[in-house]
Write a structure and sequence with these properties.
Blueprint (H helix, E strand, L loop, with lengths): L4 H9 L10 H20 L5 H17 L5 H9 L2 H28 L1 H24 L5 H4 L6 H5 L5 H4 L10 H17 L4 H6 L2 H12 L5 H27 L16 H15 L10 H19 L8 H9 L8 H11 L1 H14 L2 H15 L9 H16 L3 H7 L15 H12 L4 H10 L6
Helix pairs in contact: 2-6, 5-6, 5-10, 5-12, 6-10, 6-13, 10-12, 10-13, 14-15, 14-16, 15-17, 16-17, 17-18, 18-19, 18-20, 19-21, 20-22
């Protein structure tokens, strides 16, 4: 007896990626192997205690010169507060539970940003190893006379290697580094939907910074090194992701034209937008829409670049004009200024709302505008809003019978079931069937570019 389809899909997810989420078992094995390799290489670094102590003394002198040498006074204060000291040791020792939990949470709940987050983690581990080898560093608890080893006094793990270490790698602080990574991962996952909650995540590295100072484990400049490490790792991860995406080209075809003429309504939207942003109306003529669109978009971009925050009341008229632009090749002149002024996440969320609850012209226009809202530029990374858009677009393609809606959605609609949750796999099959059996020649030809018929 064959297992149910849902069971087969769950089993398949262990070995094949689903949407933006990599294969579970493959990801787990690769990460474990990478962590083991990192642990072996890190343990082989910083073996020379004399060099590590000399580096620590040089760093202390540099901190003293700029009045940053706060480690000993912070350590002395915590040593006189036993309850806080024990709590600090718990934070210091158990932080890895938070790191593992954040990685798992992003993998399960925010698959769209998981690869960027995981790439940042891998980059941090790769980039810190040369520093460990080049600059061994003895921690304050060994190098500062009078410093109290708080962790040794209240240790919950009782590790002999703590009081008799074989390698000295205090620069940079990876306790702070991993807490910074956790904050970045949570912020990156939530910044588009829960901005205030996303900012709260940064309190974790602040707490860890206080812990490593007061327990005598790191210097101020170690923490500066941790911040630098995260920043460089994020850059490396985004470049890595951009190269990976460039190696997976997607076949493109021209976006279709509207089946109904809505030029008059669009003229009215442009006139209202020009009045709102304070731009004179171009002279009437054959190219009026082109001149008006460019003037409005340029005015918004100029205001964002030169005069600070753009008025909130500009957002809805600007995006509505972008959604109802008849020519899909030029609506970027309105979409891109909207992104510059209000942020990519804000624009994407608004377009998702148009697609989810708008009229048929709204849905069709939102699908056209999404092409430019999703387009990756510079080092930006498209997050899980893309995954959310594609799921709604799939439902709309199947349920909406309006030809404009289906024509505009299809070019940007992934038709591989593995890119969706298991409960949407049947909808993918239905979307392919609808396109292939449609009376519209564009839908029939376009679907064959995206899902070639294996029977031919």
């Amino acid at each position: 007896m064959n297992p149910p389809p849902a069971d087969r899909r769950r089993a398949g997810a262990l070995f094949r990626g689903v949407g933006a989420r990599p294969a579970v078992l493959v990801e787990l094995i690769l990460l474990l192997l990478w962590f083991l390799l990192f642990a072996r290489l890190a343990a082989a670094a910083g073996k020379d205690f004399a060099v590590a102590t000399a580096n620590a003394l040089a760093l202390q002198s540099a901190e003293h010169a700029v009045h940053l040498d706060i480690e000993l006074s912070a350590n002395t204060w915590l040593a006189g507060n036993p309850v806080l000291a024990q709590l600090a040791v718990y934070v210091y020792r158990l932080y890895y539970v938070v790191v593992a939990g954040v990685l798992l949470w992003v993998f399960v709940r925010h698959a769209g940003v998981y690869r960027q987050v995981r790439r940042t983690m891998v980059a941090m581990m790769a980039l810190v190893l040369p520093v460990y080898w080049a600059v061994p560093m003895s921690p304050p608890r060994f190098a500062l006379p009078g410093a109290v080893d708080i962790v040794a006094r209240y240790d919950i793990l009782d590790q002999p290697s703590w009081t008799s270490p074989t390698h000295y790698t205090a620069m940079p602080s990876m306790h702070v580094g991993w807490s910074l990574w956790c904050a970045y991962a949570v912020w990156f996952a939530l910044r588009g939907t829960h901005r205030r909650l996303a900012l709260v995540a940064w309190s974790f590295p602040l707490l860890m910074t206080a812990v490593v100072f007061t327990t005598g484990n790191h210097y101020v400049l170690d923490v500066v090194g941790s911040v630098t490490l995260l920043a460089v790792s994020i850059l490396a991860a985004t470049v890595w992701g951009r190269l990976a995406r460039s190696r997976r080209p997607v076949p493109l075809s021209p976006l279709p034209g509207r089946t109904t003429d809505r030029s008059a309504a669009y003229d009215s939207l442009l006139r209202d937008l020009l009045d709102l942003v304070g731009v004179p109306h171009p002279a009437d003529g054959e190219w009026w829409q082109d001149r008006a669109r460019k003037s409005a978009g340029d005015a918004v971009a100029r205001r964002a670049a030169e005069a600070g925050p753009v008025p909130e009341e500009w957002f809805e008229p600007l995006l509505r004009a972008a959604v109802h632009e008849p020519d899909p090749s030029v609506n970027r002149q309105l979409v891109e200024p909207a992104i510059t002024a209000f942020g990519r996440d804000r624009v994407q969320l608004a377009l998702i709302d148009y697609l989810d609850s708008g009229t048929a012209p709204d849905m069709a226009g939102a699908a056209r505008a999404w092409y430019w809202a999703e387009l990756v530029v510079d080092f930006e990374v498209v997050g899980d809003l893309s995954e959310r858009y594609h799921q709604i677009a799939l439902r709309r393609f199947v349920t909406e019978t309006d030809l404009d809606v289906r024509r505009c959605i299809l070019p940007g609609l992934p038709l591989d079931p593995r890119q969706y949750p298991a409960e949407l796999h049947d909808l993918v099959t239905e979307a392919v069937r609808i396109a292939r059996t449609s009376s519209d020649g564009y839908l029939r030809s376009r679907v064959e570019l995206q899902v070639p018929d294996q029977s031919q």
